[in-house]
Amino acid sequence: MFTGRILGVSAGSIQIPYSDQLPSEDVDVIREQILVGAPLRIVVANVEPTRGVAPIVIIAAGPVLNVVWWLQDGRDGVFGATVRGTRLGLRTPSVRIADVIPRAPADTLKLTGWYRRGWYELQAENRSGVRHLELRASPSWGWAFVLPFPLWAFGSTVIYLTALYLAGVWYVLGYWNARSIGAANATVPVSRMALGILLGLVVAPVLFALPVAHWTEWLATIVGGAAGWTVARAGSHT
Predict the structure, then answer these.
(1) Which of 63, 75, 126, 147 sits most deeply, having the most CB atoms within 10 A of its CB?
(2) Sign of the dihedral defined by the CA atoms of residues 24, 25, 28, 30, in that order
């Protein structure tokens, strides 16, 4: 449970009063600004670490659709905003900025979060200084949708975890594609693998309005697929 004091909340250019319902004259403006990536800013004080995840501010469009939010998890801030995948029923990603809750409870903390054109930007500011996090969203984060932790938030390590996941998946795909070919004809399996890489790393980002896949995803995919192919072909000659 969040036990601090909320001193201010704003979405884009609109200051939001501390209330369970937004003023009707502000709803349309807030919706338009959030959709184009306007920041959600909150100012809090007297914040103590939590045990587990606690909501601080949530802007919702009805009882089951949270549009944008800030949560607290221990000493971390967690930001999230609806994306295209949300409309398809997928888990909405959230992003973590670690260890930003002040050690002195009386210190004021300002948290700002954006989701704009496939990029998350989070900023935390208190007496100790300013912390900033930028994170590129990716369709390859889909591995996290099967985790048994519904509120698990992405941090800076997500790039490496995603690369490891892709390398493992493409190792298996490379292995079985190599095992499926005859002695001389590799054209069909190689073309199949190339098409899969194109769909996953180029087409999927375009469909979800995200940046082109990070270079680590390309590297992990190619290395994993090549390793699986090499192991399978070496085994077929023994």
Answers:
(1) 126
(2) negative
Distance CA 9, CA 210 (A): 28
Residues 6+ apart with CB under 8 A from 58: 66, 68, 69
Looking only at the bridges linking them, the beta strands covering 76-81 and 94-97 are antiparallel
Architecture of the domain delimited by 5-156 = Sandwich (2.60)
Tokens of 24: 């009707």
The sheet carrying 53-60 orders its strands as: 53-60, 66-73, 76-81, 94-97
Q: Give 146-177 pLDDT, tens digit per residue.
A: 666 666 788 888 899 999 999 999 999 999 88
Provide the token pair at 121: 């930007």
Read off φ and ψ for residue 191, nearest 5 degrees. Answer: -65, -40
Q: Where are the domains of the chain?
A: 5-156, 159-236
CA distance 119 to 154: 13
